[in-house]
Task: structure prediction
Amino acid sequence: MHVHIVGTGSSGTGCWMRVKGWHWPLAAFMTRHVGLSRKAFSQNFDQVYVENLMRLVRESSLDKVVILAQDLVHDPDGTPRKDLGSFYVPNDYVLQLAKEHTEFLPAVSIHPARADALDELERCLEAGAVMMKCLPNCHNIDCNDPRYEKFWTRMAEAGLPLLAHTGGEHTVPVINAAYADPRVLTLPLKCGVTVIAAHCATKSGIFDREYFHAFVEMTRQFPNLYGDTSAFNVPFRGRHIGKCVQPPLSDRLLHGSDFPVPVYGHWAWMRRFISWSELRRCQRSGNVLERDYQLKRAMGFAEAHLTRVNSLLRRRGVVVQ
Ligand SMILES: [Zn+2]
Result:
């Protein structure tokens, strides 16, 4: 899970993307890294991106991937801020993609400050959402705001898990850096929501604060807290892999991708989490989804790490009170 859909809005998908400054070479690099040609931006990008992703899933060891919508940044009073944020992916687009393609499971994205947040949640539940994704530090969400209690309670009742970004972030603009702290997720946890802290609150850039240990502490306090290993194959996030593969922490972690974020096993090899021959074998795969999977196995994550998410996703037909 944790596979991003991005789009330019070609063919009326409703997506948009705003790439500025040094993010241009990064975006071009990521596009090539996932197997798209440089021409993708001048073609029907949204369709090309989805077709390429489906091919990668089919040619990998994965059966399905959870694809993510991306809501707009909102002010705490609920005002949408189209001037902030770097990309937008409507809920209807991921819900539609999941209806059309069996490779995809839909994770919607709803800023809880939205005036229509509860209505949108009901609509997405009805349409088959399996998860809700947000980035508190980039969306500007103080999840502990008591005004959101009703929203989290409804998610808990419906069995809809929350995938929340934690730790530093450098591919999407940060609006409130303090919300990188996993303790921002305390209220949804107390309301009974199954929460998955994306990246286990690890640092992304060299100057980011490290919240991994705060996350580990919270897993002892909250049995409904999990962490995903998305983007663990970038320079800093994988620093704690040695601890992550050991129980009891390993029982609370699950495989996340963060596609289209680059996947290089060199960082894990440099920290001696994998051998040179394992690095060579994994790097030979040009399919980034498969390479990430193979690297996680080589690092020592058990097979259960890859399937654990199945027990957390919302199922249709869950009893609603
Ligand atoms: Zn992500």
About this structure: The mean pLDDT is 92. The two ends are 28 Å apart (CA to CA). Residues 2, 4, 230, 258 surround zinc ion (CB under 6 Å).
